[in-house]
Amino acid sequence: MTSPHPDPAPATRPDDAADRSPAPGDATVTDVLIVGGGPAGLAAATVLGRSRRSVVVVDSGEPRNAPAAGAHNVLGLEGTPPRDILDRGRRESERYGVTHIRARVTDAGRDGDLLTVTTDDGRTLRGRRLLLATGLTDVLPDIPGLDEGWGRDVLHCPYCHGWEVRDERIAVIAATPQSTHQALLFANLSDRVTFVTGTVELDDDQRSLLARAGVETVGSPVTRVSRPRGVGGVVHLHLANGTEMEVDAVAVGPSFESNTELYERLGGTPAEHPMGHHIPAEPTGRTPLDGVWAAGNAGDLMAMVESSAAAGVTAGSMINAELVMADLPPA
């Protein structure tokens, strides 16, 4: 089941002045178009704005981490609500002339040497470079009731949410090849972890690892999830063998699917990953497509808030360096 919370983050206000900070020579062309206003897109926008680049960030207002009460492992902002972090990031970038547009990008293409994006409110924007900070979509197992608690009592990352469920009853539902490792990580936080293997076959090494970590295994698949006290209370797992498990939290490994639609519209091919698909990009953010860059979860399925922002800083600085060289007069 697909989570309704893809990564791009919200803008605080619509702004019709997409060319407020025009590129030299053409007031209708922006130096850098950024699709996605999450940590990666906002960090890149600030770096570029501080380098006196004209920047337009287009964002649809649907942050992936919206259900979470707080973002964790963010230096100086530990536990801050995700939307508050994004609001602060937008205000910071606006200090350097960055323009934000609340819209969904529906298409991307080329106009000669320029990159173009089309929005659902009828705008067509042109830029010298395009940064895709479009994030990813979490695809959960198709278990009724599972996605209702996503980001609250249904978790996947022990580093993002593990402290909040320490010492509690945690059921890890096997869903990916990494599920055994996930169970071991949660077992480091609680001695009441149960691994629900369902139809997944464990080899002898996996069973030994789980047993050594004190993790109980249950072999019957989960058919549905219910919450008699509402989300954030006790969670009931209904099993195919007719039994029922009562836990405090559920951990599950979704498939991570980078939002690659625009990259594909430009002729790119997504790269495969053991946990899903993503936009192929160098550590700098450069993709195989000329003028197209990627940062955050669009290119790195495992990136958290802090590492996504760091990737945005790197991509923004490298884009600026490329534009510096492109703007030099001929020798």
From TrEMBL:
<feature type="domain" description="FAD/NAD(P)-binding">
    <location>
        <begin position="31"/>
        <end position="298"/>
    </location>
</feature>
<dbReference type="InterPro" id="IPR036188">
    <property type="entry name" value="FAD/NAD-bd_sf"/>
</dbReference>
<dbReference type="Pfam" id="PF07992">
    <property type="entry name" value="Pyr_redox_2"/>
</dbReference>
<feature type="compositionally biased region" description="Pro residues">
    <location>
        <begin position="1"/>
        <end position="11"/>
    </location>
</feature>
<keyword id="KW-0560">Oxidoreductase</keyword>
<feature type="region of interest" description="Disordered">
    <location>
        <begin position="63"/>
        <end position="87"/>
    </location>
</feature>
<dbReference type="InterPro" id="IPR023753">
    <property type="entry name" value="FAD/NAD-binding_dom"/>
</dbReference>
<dbReference type="GO" id="GO:0004791">
    <property type="term" value="F:thioredoxin-disulfide reductase (NADPH) activity"/>
</dbReference>
<feature type="region of interest" description="Disordered">
    <location>
        <begin position="1"/>
        <end position="30"/>
    </location>
</feature>
<keyword id="KW-0285">Flavoprotein</keyword>
<dbReference type="InterPro" id="IPR050097">
    <property type="entry name" value="Ferredoxin-NADP_redctase_2"/>
</dbReference>
<protein>
    <submittedName>
        <fullName>Thioredoxin reductase</fullName>
    </submittedName>
</protein>
